[in-house]
Amino acid sequence: MTCTGCALLCDDIDVHDGEVRPACRIGAAHILNRHQVDPMVNHEIVSIDDAIGHAATLLTDAKHPMFLGFGNSVTETQEIGVRLAEKIGAGIDTCSSHAHLIDDIIHNRVRTCALSEVRDMADVILFWGADPMNTHPRLLSGYAYYPRGKNRQHGWEEDRTAITIDVRRSHTASICKGMHKIVFGHEAEFVDALMLALQNKVPKTVYDSKQVLKLAGTLKKAEFGVIFAGPGLVESVPHDAIIRLMDRLNEFSDFRILPLHSQYNLRSIAAVKTAATVTTTDVATGATTNNTTNNTTNTTTDAADAREQQGVGTQTSKITLNSLREADCILCVGFDLISSLPQACDIDARIIIIDPNETLTAGCADVVIPCAAGGVDMAGTAVRLDGVEIDLPCIMETGQAGVGMPTDTPTRMSDASIMNRLLEAV
Ligand code: SF4
User: Fold this and answer.
1) pLDDT tens, 220-244?
2) The domain that contains 381 carries what CATH number?
3) Co-location of 175 and 204 in the same domain
4) 3-state secondary structure the chain
5) pLDDT one-digit tens code per residue, 288-335
6) Residue 249's domain spans which residues?
7) Is 380 in the pocket of ligand 1 (CB under 6 A)?
8) What is the pTM of this model?
9) Going by CA atoms, what residue is nearest to atom 2 of ligand 1?
10) Domain end position, chosen among 200, 230, 259
């Protein structure tokens, strides 16, 4: 079975007597989580049919609907969600700071690789603005550091150099051979300094030049280097600066980049949307651009044109209060809006939430629709952080306890079925 606790999608999971093995603590908590909510309309408990009906009415009446999330939904739900957005002219925003990087990877603007290649070949690994020991706990043992790979038979002791670049000394930094501390507010300056150091120029910077030159020397000697890009990198350094850095690194060695995001299926929703027209919002300038790609899998340019005519934006940016204020109805799918942006509880828009678990947003939403969790009590497919498609079988049947699971598991409708009902109703 597969764990959907993070984007690593470990597929060696087994459940026995209420214990989830060999999942990490995040995965076990995710699979055993029973903090579920009842269907609600205006904070009153109702039937699931009434909640879906009320949500359909709100979406039908909305003049500026907006969909948020989808990174924690199976691919099948995302595809229906995009169709629903097209039908009612809603914009979709994944609300992830990794969206630009994933877009750059999908469009081959930066080089990437599979996790199996990291395990077999990587000799220099950078954890940049990332702390996988606490966000993707099995990354280091499964792929990035400890395992012996085909060309890395001596593992971390001799064959691998792991370095963290972060604003603080994280848990991951404590096991790495090097650590570079980023000065808060000077994140992009570190990239500029490193770019100069890679050209053997001494950077004039707030950072220790000798340390930056030493890091550049290590990176240039790499046979197969990998940057794991955490939120600390993608939120503070413009994505074109990351592209330039990757180009510069690849002048000297073979360097790849992988996004380290938490939402288990973020890579898929980016691909589902990117298959047609993509409207991206530049976080720094607020400017929007439209790109049409022929790199389609299942969507034609005609469909993309139709979306443009309908005004269906497919924004991929970190959410801001201003962009939310334009909407009069917000549908959150597997996304806890209030936890990400607490000020959003003051906006005028009606809020609908579809989520497997109780969240802060459920507490102030107009409509709450509980759903089954992908890979736990509903099957589907998802795309791992390195782009590999993974099947998600059910760990337990919805409404049944399942092998070794708690017996108080309620029946839950899948978010794909809920989305289909909304699609028919609007
Ligand atoms: S590393 Fe991620 S996918 Fe693997 S068991 Fe932990 S939470 Fe689940």
Assistant:
1) 999 999 999 999 999 999 999 999 9
2) 3.40.50.740
3) yes
4) CCCCCCCCCCCCCEEECCEEECCCHHHHHHHHCCCCCCCEECCEECCHHHHHHHHHHHHHHCCCEEEEECCCCCHHHHHHHHHHHHHHCCEEECCCCCHHHHHHHHCCCCCCCCHHHHHHHCCEEEEECCCHHHHCCCHHHHHHCCCCECCECCHHHHCCEEEEEECCCCCCHHHCCEEEECCCCCHHHHHHHHHHHHCCCCCCCCCCHHHHHHHHHHHHCCCCEEEEECHHHHCCCCHHHHHHHHHHHHHHCCEEEEECCCCCCHHHHHHHHHCCEEEEECCCCCCEEEEECCCCCCCCHHHHHHHHHHCCCCCCCCCCHHHHHCCCEEEEECCCHHHHCHHHHHCCCEEEEEECCCCHHHHHCCEEEECCCECCCECEEEECCCCCEEEECCCCCCCCCCCCCCCCCCCCCCHHHHHHHHHHHC
5) 434 333 333 333 333 334 434 433 333 345 567 788 888 999 999 999
6) 101-259
7) no
8) 0.86
9) 6
10) 259
